[in-house]
Design brief:
By secondary structure, the protein is mostly helical. The protein is built from 4 helices and no strands. About 60% of the residues lie in helices and about 0% in strands. α1 packs across α3 and α3 packs across α4.
Length: about 110
């Protein structure tokens, strides 16, 4: 995994600004983040960088659109799970989610 992506993930988890030296591997970072299903999670940390430190506008826009799409999909999944859980509860059945909703895209 790219060092830049590891720094972005760390920044996202700890909530501190990314300590970043200029690197040219934004495309590799983007591609790896998509593959590992962490692109949306890293968007806030990447966006907090100055414009000079961010990837080019085209890649940044693509990253933003992907992150927004994931947010919309996640909200839809939460609503579906709530609705199905309500139906099952109405029939006297209890439910428990044992896999995260974010893993759903892998199945």
């Amino acid at each position: 995994m790219s060092e830049l992506l590891c720094k972005l993930i760390n920044s996202s988890f700890v909530g501190k600004p990314l300590k970043y030296q200029h690197e040219d591997d934004w495309q590799l970072c983007y591609d790896t983040a998509i593959e590992q299903q962490v692109l949306a999670m890293t968007f806030p940390a990447m966006s907090a960088l100055s414009k000079e430190q961010r990837p080019n506008f085209t890649l940044w826009s693509k990253w933003m659109a992907y992150a927004q799409n994931i947010a919309v999909q996640s909200q839809h999944k939460r609503e579906v799970v709530r609705k199905i859980g309500g139906w099952l509860a109405g029939e006297g059945l209890s439910t428990m989610i044992i896999k995260g909703l974010s893993l759903a895209v892998l199945y």
